[in-house]
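fyi for ur records
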Amino acid sequence: MLTAGVVAPAIADPDGAGGGSGSSTPSAADVRAAKERAADARTDVDGIQERLAAADDALDAASVRAAKAAEAWNGARWEAQQARVRERTATAASARADKALRAQKAAYRDVLITTNGAGTDLAAANAILAADDMQALLEETATKDRVDDLLDQQRAEYDAAAGAAAKAEESATAAADEAEQALAKARTARDAAQAEADAAAATARRVGRQKVRLVATLARLQGVSVAVAQRRQEALESETRRARAAATPDPEPRPDPQPQPADDGPAPDPAPADPEPADPAPADPPAPSGGAQAAIAFARAQLGEPYQWGAAGPGSWDCSGLTSKAWAAGGKSLPHYSVAQYDVSTPISAGQLRPGDLVFWGDNGSPSSIYHVALYVGGGRIIHAPRTGRPVTEESMYYWRTPDFYARP
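which gave:
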């Protein structure tokens, strides 16, 4: 923890105690008071840093809620799209069944007209009466039987066509109802995502203002400039992220992070650098395939573009929108939904990662809880659209905490 570094000034004892009249030697009371002020300052620094950590936690929680809502919207929208596809398929099947039924109606009508309409029973009776011998009678009777068989077959085909048409119409109606319900769910999810995005943006603004005030107070207590205090705070937050990542078990073992020097109080100003921890990367992977290279190149071309929930370019992105379009450039179609992207990809371990693979974060051990996805680019780094207020960026895949799932498109 960074300390205040406060030095108590020497105060003359107006009563001359401990050093004679006019002596500059502090009394025991002065020393105690100075130590108390230093302790108070240290306590103040610790308290401010706790408040800064709490502010970051609040922002993190709001961002996660917004990410979950955004991916729930993507999921609901994707399901609505699938429901529409099923509706169109069912409607087309119903139309084909209706056409087949109309053809069977016409065929059955023609057979009835040709047989019953022409007086089949009367013709059969006349044939029996006019038969010259038994052989002729049998031939005439067989003809009638064949006609009756034809009628029975035609009736069976008509009944089958009518049943298929009814079933197809029922399926089409059910698919239409399902699509409407999916659309209603998507609209609800869209509204929830917008509300969470607005809440996260408001939290980000509030936390930003709060951190500016707290860092300024921290600088005053530590006796340094605001810029120095800000750099120290960023380094402390980076170390906190490292500790959180180290506390989360990896799906596959990875080397321990390089040890960091102990904090013995105020340190020289760190050189401006990437505040993200230099986490070790998985073993050097093979060179990416042409599709993976194209996906990475596309993602890199979007660096700096803003995050917008539900967006898949051009100019703004959410996490699954970016990975979807990146891999589209690489020749593979991925849904605009992180859970579905995992489902249609091949699960791998952290140790199998190679450039172009997908890295996922979820709530628990189930892939259905996934709510964030990034594109792995090698060297332990990812490109992703993080959240509202943070543009598309390339950074350590341990920037926040260890990912939960990995997959290869």
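The chain has two domains: 1-247, 280-409. thats all i got for now
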